[in-house]
Amino acid sequence: MPRLPADPVRRQNRTGTRDLLGKVAVIVGGSRNQGAACAELFAERGATTVISYAHGEHAAARTLAALDGYGVRAEAIRSDAVQSCDVNTLFKGVVARHGRLDIVVHAVGAFLHKPLAQHTDVDFDLLIDHNTRSAFNTLRAAADHLADNGRYVVVTSAVASAGPGPYGLYAASKAAVERLVSAAAHELAGRDITVNAVAPGPVSDSIYPGIDVPGPHSRYARSRLGQPEDVAGVISWLVSDAAAWISGQVIRVDGGTA
User: Fold this and answer.
1) Within a 10 A sphere around the Cβ of 24, how many other Cβ atoms?
2) What pTM did the predictor assign?
């Protein structure tokens, strides 16, 4: 469902800058939650913005309509990040249509909350496929298709480095991605491509709806759950020139959660 609007920007620019004009960004899993928030920030700053989604066409259409309001080129492409052929086709298509690829954000994932011994084989496949394999697929394809001085950011989780708890397999699937980030940052440094991870704490979205809203004496330092925009703001900064000297890092975005 491509959109190639030529209208001037109609929404107020919150950042006051169009520093991503001429850049092409792909947000894998950009139809909702943190991915959609990133897409809006990139479009607001002038980037040609492509979101991909594996399912949920209505959510993708809503996000695409929001991107239209910024007067940039925007597309929503159905693509399953768990399938390497889908990811390669997605990136090749973006470069063919828009001439380049400068920014890739990976915001795909699955979450399960249960003790390790209670996980089934199906649970294992779900978490490894959606959290680890999908990130590997996009990182490998990004290495082939990103322009020099490009940016890759993957959303992991603060749980990956947390202490014991009922998140063992989920944490392991995210921790593996953070090791890939470290390796890729080293391998792509010669092309001035930065590779980073953003590790949110609990974020109120469709995956974690925020039923247990923290109170003033909870372990959540800010006494609230994070919002997708809290995470997107950090990702938006990481793809800017101001963050050009930051690579191979995992940045926690958790409001000081203990």
Assistant:
1) 24
2) 0.87
